[in-house]
């Protein structure tokens, strides 16, 4: 199936992040295992996009399945950029070795999680382009970026998680209504959406250039 190589590469990078965490544990210092959980959550949209992309390649335009998968993907997609905000947990003491190790460790987790999110966005975007009209797929893409930022706000500020959609959807609706006019929600949504958009544009340009270059060589 297409995409196995990127999955294996992302798995290696995830193991590298966990390795940094294991080194942290060897320091006998307090450890926060939520990083590993958040990294795992960033794999959910990645695997969702991987499977729906390959399924539609093989079986054609399964509109209903694509819509359901896209909603499920969108519910977990904010977990990818969410780990950027874990830098807020960093305690600064430039004379301590742990400060530097934690900086690299948190960056590694955030980087891998962000890679997972961007690759999943690329695969789900491919699916949308295959199943829907170009204008529809572009609308879905542009809407998903600030929505991911809004999901980060709900997780970091409102202390919610993706499972609340199943566990207690009433809390989701209540927090959505309270957050509509929150300036912090607007700032986080727009800025993280802009960041994801710029990074995705770079990824898209690199992939498209590689495809065209290979076609010229052949």
TrEMBL record:
Coiled-coil spans in chain: none
Organism: Dyadobacter frigoris
Transmembrane segments: 7-27, 39-55, 62-84, 104-124, 136-154, 185-207
Pfam family, one: DUF1361
Protein name, entry field: DUF1361 domain-containing protein
Keywords: Membrane, Transmembrane, Transmembrane helix
Taxonomic placement: Bacteria, Pseudomonadati, Bacteroidota, Cytophagia, Cytophagales
Recorded superkingdom: Bacteria
């Amino acid at each position: 199936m297409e995409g196995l190589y990127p999955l294996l590469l992302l798995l290696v990078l995830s193991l590298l992040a966990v390795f940094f965490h294991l080194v942290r544990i060897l320091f006998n210092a307090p450890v926060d295992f939520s990083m590993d959980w958040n990294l795992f959550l960033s794999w959910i949209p990645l695997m969702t996009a991987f499977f729906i992309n390959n399924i539609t390649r093989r079986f054609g335009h399964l509109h209903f399945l694509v819509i359901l998968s896209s909603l499920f993907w969108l519910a977990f997609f904010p977990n990818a950029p969410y780990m950027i905000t874990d830098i807020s947990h960093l305690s600064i003491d430039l004379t301590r070795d742990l400060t530097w190790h934690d900086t690299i460790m948190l960056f590694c987790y955030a980087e891998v999680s962000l890679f997972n999110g961007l690759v999943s966005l690329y695969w789900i975007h491919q699916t949308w382009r295959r199943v829907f009209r170009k204008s529809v797929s572009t609308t879905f893409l542009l809407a998903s970026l600030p929505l991911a930022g809004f999901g980060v706000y709900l997780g970091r500020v409102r202390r919610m998680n993706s499972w609340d959609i199943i566990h207690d959807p009433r809390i989701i609706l209540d927090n959505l209504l309270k957050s509509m006019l929150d300036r912090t929600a607007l700032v986080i949504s727009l800025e993280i959406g802009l960041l994801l958009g710029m990074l995705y544009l770079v990824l898209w340009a690199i992939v498209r250039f590689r495809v065209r270059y290979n076609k010229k060589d052949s």
